[in-house]
Amino acid sequence: MSAAPGLDIGPARSGESRAAARVLTDAFLDDPVASAIGPRRRSHRRLISPLSFGGIVTASRRHGARVTLARRDGAVVGVVISFDPGRWPLSDGAVVYELAWVLVAGPAPVRRAIAFDRAVRAEHVGYEHMYLWFLGVDPAAQGTGVGRALLADLHARADARGVPTYLETGTMDNVPWYGSAGYSVVGEMTLPHGGPLWRMERAAASA
Ligand SMILES: CC(C)(COP(=O)(O)OP(=O)(O)OC[C@H]1O[C@@H](n2cnc3c(N)ncnc32)[C@H](O)[C@@H]1OP(=O)(O)O)[C@@H](O)C(=O)NCCC(=O)NCCS
């Protein structure tokens, strides 16, 4: 599928995990939730986020999530990690892919990550849905239609199954952006570290 000029959207191929982790690292470096979990120092986060996202991408590919990439001129410029209905969450064994991050991040970020994960899981919707776990666009490519193209690809799959798409975001500016793609806020929560998180959902087009 090609939804924006020069953009190729498709499943991550073997050998693309590192590039996907790099894009997610750059996209989420100043994300409010990632910053609150830590490490709090930006330079430290920049150093270890590739480990964290490398683990997340590999675990996702092996344990039931979908990693979809946007490529421009062969380079990865955007990443979506999503779950088809009934596939969320990753199995407990997938946590092994987080070990490298756990070892270098230190105990406080790990403690905050666990608390965050528990709080968010507790609010997760119980009905059939597509779950958008991560969406990140290379900062140099933001505002050029990559995010919209990745969403369109995800929504096409959700619409074919007739299920809503659900996500959480801790970035206030993302709320109107997702709103313009058909999402509404279905809940707002306060995270253990004190920051807000908006829970959003888009109904299936056929619903
Ligand atoms: C949020 C993010 C995924 C958006 O992706 P993107 O590729 O930059 O966005 P696009 O270029 O596809 O979207 C641009 C469109 O959104 C519109 N837009 C931008 N900001 C907007 C806003 N606050 N409200 C409504 N529309 C907005 C633009 O006008 C443009 O519209 P057009 O397609 O009609 O021209 C990207 O900025 C990103 O990776 N951010 C950091 C990580 C993150 O927050 N991810 C989401 C976590 S839930």
What can you see in these coordinates?
This protein is of the alpha+beta class and 207 residues long. It has a single domain (7-202), classed as Gcn5-related N-acetyltransferase (GNAT) (Aminopeptidase), CATH 3.40.630. 41% of the residues lie in helices and 23% in strands. The chain has seven helices and seven strands. The chain has helices spanning 17-28, 32-37, 42-62, 99-105, 107-123, 146-161, 174-179, and strands at 7-11, 66-72, 75-83, 130-137, 165-169, 184-190, 196-202. It has a seven-stranded mixed beta sheet. Strand 6 (184-190) and strand 7 form a beta hairpin. Helix 1 (17-28) crosses helix 3 (42-62). 34% of the residues are buried.
Strand composition percent = 15-25%
Radius of gyration: 16 Å
Distance between the termini: 24 Å
Average pLDDT rating: 95
DSSP helix fraction: 40-55%
Reported for the largest beta sheet, the result is: 7 strands, mixed
Q: How many domains make up the coordinates? A: 1
Q: Give the class-level CATH name.
A: Alpha Beta
Weakly predicted, low-confidence segments: none
CATH fold topology: Aminopeptidase
Count, helices: 7
- Number of beta strands: 7
